[in-house]
Amino acid sequence: MPEPGTEIEGLLRDLAPQVLGALARRYGHFDLAEDAVQEALIAAASQWRSGGIPASPRGWLITVASRRLTDLLRAEQARRRREEAAARQVPVGHSLTGGADAPPDADDTLILMLLCCHPALSAASQVALTLRAAGGLTTAEIARVFLVPEETMTRRITRAKQAIADSGTEFTMPEPGERTARLAAVLQVIYLIFTEGYASTSGPSLLRTDVCADAIRLARMLRELLPDDAEVTGLLALLLLTDARRPARADPDGLPVPMAEQDRGKWDAARIAEGTALVTEALRRGPPGPYQVQAAIAALHDEAPTAEKTDWPQILALYEVLMQASDNPVVALNHAVAAAMVHGPRVGLALLENVGANQRIAAAHRLHAVRANLLEMAGDPEGARDAYLRAAELTASPPHQRYLNARAARLADRAR
To answer: What pTM value is reported for the model?
Structure first.
């Protein structure tokens, strides 16, 4: 049985997007509605612990948030000398409880996610606002995700909300063409959130379990809203199949363990089964999108009983499908690894030369870490050592730095 505080926290995170969607749909003013909902969540976290969870928690939150929004609107409109307009929009004494706990309109949460991924916002702002509005995280929690001070994140979120306000966007479902583009951004944001949790780019820990969990929760929420969208299903499958390996991803010292060296008995069999079923379902619906293909690759890794029995020819074929659909340098990097596993390390190293022409990937540690591994496989320990050291210089993650330096030191010891 979960602790009371844990149960309340989970309930509030689930309800947050529903409540914000209800307020934004009724009254507009996304930025003020979001502030009002956050205050209602804080009040609930305090009062529900001592007084218990109300019979209608969603209705309680909407009522409290609506009252606070009324106060914020009055203050804002007084400053702008629009009291009469405010009175017409939110009449004094207007009942806010009637129908407050009606079943939520599923589109509210979807619209909320689409709004958070407004094209006027940077990718970082889209992630932050999605975590705040749809994910139900506090500003302090989001700041920890980005490893920045809370004050910095407060300013970032404030600017993001102001950008949406300045755009004049209403809280309505975008037109089909724009909706498709926004949905792609939503999927990318959820994927980026998960990636940061699974392979932290900085900070003392290799993994951030809570961030992975938030991304999976958002992906599940999106699939509930769009159960027939194959790419949404593919993304959820990808996250589950990748997260299944998390228990074996780090050693007792917190250093990364390569997939080939992981104890597969520690992998989460339930997540593998769920993810495999989801990607199988998605692939039946027609030509696969990139998340479905990546999920299929993850399933092949997860289903292999040992590293030696991994179906690398099939994985290589799937990466070639991705290469045809995208010029993403990370896909090209993974394609080179798969080619090396099928045709030998020298083939992979030749492909890496083309990948390294991309300045963005050339400045990332992973290219050099992959080159080091392939050079080691090819029997060039000196070249591998130099590549490991270069990779260690480029990463901001202390666990990765320690791991890469250790690999370089091991090769140096062998040469003596």
So the answer is: 0.79
On whether the CB atoms of residues 68 and 39 are closer than 8 A, the answer is: yes
Which is nearest to 317 in space by CA: 296, 302, 303? Answer: 296
Question: Does residue 22 surpass a pLDDT of 80?
Answer: yes
Crossing angle of the two packed helices 230-243 and 269-283, in degrees rounded to 10: 160
Closest by Cα among 245, 249, 307, 309 to 272: 245
Output the six-digit token pair for 396: 């901001």
Closest CA to 117 of 104, 134, 105: 134
Which of 323, 343, 393, 344 lies closest to 365, judged by CA?
393
What does the alpha-carbon distance between residue 390 and residue 176 come to, in Å, rounded to a whole number? 46
Neighbours of 352 (CB within 10 A): 23
Beta bridge partners of 256: 250
Distance from C-alpha of 201 to C-alpha of 348, rounded to nearest angstrom: 25
3-state DSSP assignment of residue 397: coil
| pLDDT tens-digit series, residues 68-104 | 888 888 776 665 554 444 444 444 434 333 334 434 4
- pLDDT of 304 reads 97
- 305-355: per-residue pLDDT in tens? 999 999 999 999 999 999 998 888 889 999 999 999 999 999 999 999 988
Per the CB < 8 A criterion, the answer to whether 365 and 399 are in contact is no
Q: 3-state class of 202 per DSSP?
A: strand
* Token couple for 333: 């990097």
Contacts of 75 (CB under 8 A, 6+ apart): none
Cβ contact 207:249 at 8 Å: yes
Listed residue (218, 231, 195, 233) closest to 330, CA to CA: 195
* Cα–Cα distance list, 360 to 114, 193, 322, 364, 365 (Å): 28, 20, 19, 7, 10
